[in-house]
Design a protein that fits this description.
Length: about 250
């Protein structure tokens, strides 16, 4: 009787829930790693001429980030994604038992080959991927899962936080770049733009474009919204930079 109750209490998770939990975890971990990388590089990283410094910083962040990713289910067999989806990892032979840290870490190492893991999960009758088989784990529904509302709100909050952070951080980094500063200076001395806008009073919150620097040679392209006293204007600016030189305006279009 006890075994029957245990089986009823711990139903196997559906594949849909597992895949959704994976993507949620991936979003959260990517958000954390990208956030730390941006903070570590600083707001002026677009002007960095030393690629090895950027790579070193990224590796310094990403290596512990991946270790954390592989250990994501170590707290009671539940990651953030699994909490939101109401599932958890358990020992396949004793579903009341949480697998050891080592087994959970081993299980998640196989996420590196996630396309293969998805195929195995989709075709395996026991709803197991390779990591589950090797670590002898099973993913089941959490009988004590919280109500739906806080889980949905958590998911929405994570998504909004990720996109807002990336949007504002990337925009701020672009506006702090030397190329952008030169672009706005060129706009401010352009008589046609001044006349058409009735005088420049500012710029849009987030410019779009890109800055590329390789071997101290760079190209930059921006779409900048110029806020004028009479009317606003969208201006396209293209700049180039020679080694050991300054950014120079190549083309400007309204």
């Amino acid at each position: 009787m006890t075994e029957q109750k245990t089986e009823l209490a711990f139903l196997k998770s559906s594949r849909k829930r597992r895949i959704a939990a994976f993507f949620i975890d991936h979003l959260i971990m990517t958000f954390l790693m990208v956030s730390i990388v941006f903070i570590a590089l600083g707001p002026n990283f677009m002007d960095e001429n030393n690629p090895s410094k950027i790579m070193t910083t990224m590796l310094f962040v990403m290596i512990p980030g991946f270790l954390l990713y592989f250990a994501k289910d170590s707290l009671k067999g539940i990651s953030a994604g699994k909490w939101i989806m109401g599932i958890m990892v358990r020992d396949e032979n004793s579903q009341n038992k949480i697998p050891s840290f080592g087994r959970i870490f081993l299980r998640n190492l196989f996420i590196i080959i996630w396309p293969i893991e998805f195929i195995v999960l989709a075709t395996n009758d026991q709803k197991k991927r390779l990591g589950d088989k090797l670590a002898k784990t099973i993913v089941v529904k959490n009988p004590n899962e919280p109500t739906k509302l806080p889980r949905v709100l958590a998911l929405i909050g994570v998504g909004i936080a990720f996109f807002v952070f990336v949007f504002f951080t990337a925009g701020n980094a672009m506006k702090n770049s030397d190329a952008y500063k030169v672009a706005t200076k060129e706009i401010e001395i352009n008589k046609e733009i001044i006349a058409e806008t009735g005088g420049i009073k500012g710029y849009g919150m987030m410019p779009t474009g890109n800055v590329s620097i390789s071997n101290e040679q760079g190209q930059a392209q921006f779409e900048i919204k110029v806020l004028g006293n009479k009317k606003d204007l969208n201006v396209s600016v293209y700049l180039e930079k020679e080694p050991n030189g300054e950014w120079k305006l190549i083309e400007m279009q309204k």
